[in-house]
Amino acid sequence: MEKQIGITIIGLGPSDSQHWTMAAYKRLTQADEIYLRTAHHPSVVDILAKIHSFDAWYEQSTDFNSLYDQIAAEIVRLGQRENGVIYAVPGHPHVGEATVPRILALAEQRQLPVTIIAGLSFIEPTLTALNLNALDNLQIVDALEIANLHHPPLNPDHPALVARLYGAGIAKQVKNSLLNAYSHDYTVTLIRAADCETERVRHCPLAELDNQTDLDELTTLYLPADSANNSLVTFQETIAHLRSAEGCPWDKIQTHQSLRRYLLEETYEVLEALDANDTAALAEELGDLLLQIALHTQIATETGEFKMGDVIGQINRKMLRRHPHVFGDVVINEVSELGPIWSAIKQTEKTEKGIVPKMASALDGIQVGLPALAQTLALSKKAVSAGFEWHNMAGVLDKIVEEAREVAEATEYTHLESEIGDLFFSLVNLARWHNIDPESALRSTNARFTRRFQTMESLAMAQSKNLPDLSLEEILDLWEEAKRKTTN
């Protein structure tokens, strides 16, 4: 018998022993002793050697990462024996086998030789069962990886295989992650024991994934490509094409500055959709806003300024950095505790960027480009944090009355402009006291005024009258009627 030195890792293939390679067959049939990561594999019945499995370790473990470290350490220990060790794993040792890279790393540290004997992976028979071409942008991921995420690391525009969907519990976790990118009624396919006598292929809506039976380590989930072209990658290709030599004449000549006004326009259209509580319009307007971001980023890519990865990477790192209570070890009990934490983090960021602080002011950090009402609200909040606040609501209301009187008394244009501004500021302060967003409140009033005015125009038209021809009293009567007909 050929003497085993060091560690030999053998792939058992995807199912029964007919899928063993000739090299694997020779080693498996000649060995006296074989260690298995799991004995739950169809081909194990054809192994005549003495076998040991780590299934008992699985039953006692609550942390797979720690378990894989323990298995790897044990295999490396056994590999240091005179006759070494044969370690057999399902499929191919380099396809979804978490213990193998750990074994290779430990063995290299100890200068222990490792021989890999390939096996057919789950991929090939699954491709056969589904009549798929693996080179057609196929994505392959482990169910455990997706289960531990809140958003799947997949491009929905391309097909994907999710391996080892071994039970309802992990199927539920995988489903929840996938639903962040795919629709509830998205049809998926489950393939169990591909290329075996017990092979089973069935379809179900994604939302019903965890209600399926007979899920085990031999089960693979197939996600077909989404024909809706919903991915960011596909969208970037569209924008890059529009900016290319064979693209659109208008898109090709745009610059950061020429697009500036569209960015502002699309932002206000998003706000309009929010005000109307129109979710379909909101999705469309957010898409238009994303278009502006993608155009600016493509222009920057072409000029070597930055790429989409820089844009996403910077904001992602900022979110991780500014949420130590979620991604770090900071503990908070109240939302109010976040203010000081964020202030400290922002100050650290400025220091790291080499921004020299000027004389500290409670009003620091307010963007000058904010809309006037939003800037006023920010100023009011900042001033309050420094103790500049009324003792009660009566003080706020008295200030509004005072400013209104000063508006009435103003006689010069510049004085009147100043007093009207003061009145606006006091009204925003009142809104803050009531936790009302003044921008939203005014936009709501504008929309309400529009509805009522247009109703008034319709009432006048129904009476064969034109508003400009009516007296003030007649117009006010129509206004009151319009108010009764439009309750909000």
Descriptive notes:
- This protein is α/β, with parallel strands linked by helices and 488 residues long.
- It folds into 6 domains: 7-120, Tetrapyrrole methylase, N-terminal domain (Cobalt-precorrin-4 Transmethylase, domain 1); 124-223, Tetrapyrrole methylase, C-terminal domain (Methyltransferase, Cobalt-precorrin-4 Transmethylase, Domain 2, 2-Layer Sandwich); 232-320, MazG-like (Helix Hairpins), CATH 1.10.287; 322-353, no CATH class; 372-436, Helix Hairpins; 440-485, no CATH class.
- It contains 19 helices and 10 strands.
- The strands form 2 sheets. It has a 5-stranded parallel beta sheet with strand order 3-2-4-1-5, with helices on both faces.
- α10 runs antiparallel to α11 and α16 (393-409) runs antiparallel to α17 (413-433).
- The chain is elongated, with a radius of gyration of 34 Å.
- The mean pLDDT is 90.
